[in-house]
Amino acid sequence: QAKCRLRRCRRCTIPGFEAVVLSGMAFADAVQQAFAGNAETFGLVGLGWHVEFGSDVFEGVEGRESVLEGARMLSRTQRWHWGSCTKALSTTVVASLVDAGFFSSGWDTTLGDILPALSKDAADHNFAKVTLRHLAAHRSGICVDLAPEVEERLRVKVAASGMSFAEQRAAFARELAMSTLGCKPGEGFGYSNAGFALLSAAAEVAAKKPWEELVIERLVMPLGMTSFGFGVPPRDVASGGALGHNEDGEVDETEDLPWHHASFSVHSTFHDWALFARMHLRALRGDSSALKVVGVGASSAALLHTPVSPAFLGEMSRGPEKPMSMAMGWQCLWEEPSDGEHWLAERTGILYHFGTNFRFNAGMYLCAEPPLLMLVASNSGSSLAKLAGRLALEAVIGAGKVDE
């Protein structure tokens, strides 16, 4: 039987030293039951979590690396797939480029400005009017993803061509430009992975560097993230690593396509992921210099956290999700409004996102007051894994309110 490896600690001021304190066990028990209990209830292959409540840190794993015979128990050093929590990272990188002056009109720079040839040949003349702001906030009118058959054809084509990642993103952008927009830019909400692929393609053209280099130079290195990488978590013969599992619970080692690196395709340990999340929690709590370490000023940090959808009462959405107070790479409204209820986007003191590549699941939750940071990830790509993660987070949120 898999056993939970739960750690509770207070961060110590002595470099390299961590003092363990076994106090406040009621909240620690609530964390363990929330995550380990839901992992067992929903029959997940594996689940990991990292929780910071005030100055206390709780971290654990439950389950195994895969369903294969002889699979090892998960390790706390496991590198986890971030899913669409990657989008918050991508908008942070773009914000650093905006603040560094790489875009002529900042967030309002259009695809027509950055990719003039592509925009001129696009099937929809409004394609050229799409801005970085539209792409980052899912208000561009661009489809959720390319049609599966179109993306598969593109995958086969680039696999045989030896294209670089940047060239593959450019090819993806060309395919995307052949589609008609679902609405005029800025006039509606439509969740879009494809839009973030286009955002990264535009960024690398403006900065004259591949997206992967921009992420490493502008975010990973300044934060000191040592386990970060693109795509699904690598598997090492010696140290092991989790394998992804599909909706049916079968091992699925399919790689993510590189044009989705900015949409939902990075990985790291919880330790490194928390460096990123903690930085944004500080900003959410009012620290205007929190993102300075990655070259993002106070105004851009506030912009990343400010929801823009729905922009008006009764705004309709397209795609798989409602316009749930969507900011740039973050959602801000945890409790879904009742059917028929109308509301306008406003800051809530909460930032979160869930995501999956259908082989791994992940979630990230930040709350300003009381200060709470939670990361959850699973090597089960099923819809039940997302539900388990959501219920676990809700249980800890409730326990935190009682404790506070």
What does this entry look like structurally?
The chain has helices at residues 25-41, 86-99, 111-114, 116-121, 132-136, 148-159, 165-176, 193-207, 211-223, 261-264, 270-284, 298-305, 383-403, and strands at 7-11, 18-20, 46-53, 56-63, 80-81, 189-190, 229-230, 266-268, 317-318, 350-356, 361-367, 372-378. The protein is α+β, with helices and mostly antiparallel strands and 404 residues long. A hairpin with a 6-residue loop joins strand 1 and strand 2 (18-20). 50% of the residues are buried.
Q: What is the helix fraction of residues, given as a range?
A: 25-40%
Averaged pLDDT: 90
| Intertermini distance | 34 Å
Percent in strands: 5-15%
Key phrases:
disordered N terminus; 404 residues; seven-stranded antiparallel sheet
Present the secondary structure layout:
Blueprint: E1 7-11, E2 18-20, H1 25-41, E3 46-53, E4 56-63, E5 80-81, H2 86-99, H3 111-114, H4 116-121, H5 132-136, H6 148-159, H7 165-176, E6 189-190, H8 193-207, H9 211-223, E7 229-230, H10 261-264, E8 266-268, H11 270-284, H12 298-305, E9 317-318, E10 350-356, E11 361-367, E12 372-378, H13 383-403
Parallel strand pairs: 6-9
Antiparallel strand pairs: 1-2, 1-4, 3-4, 3-12, 5-8, 7-8, 10-11, 11-12
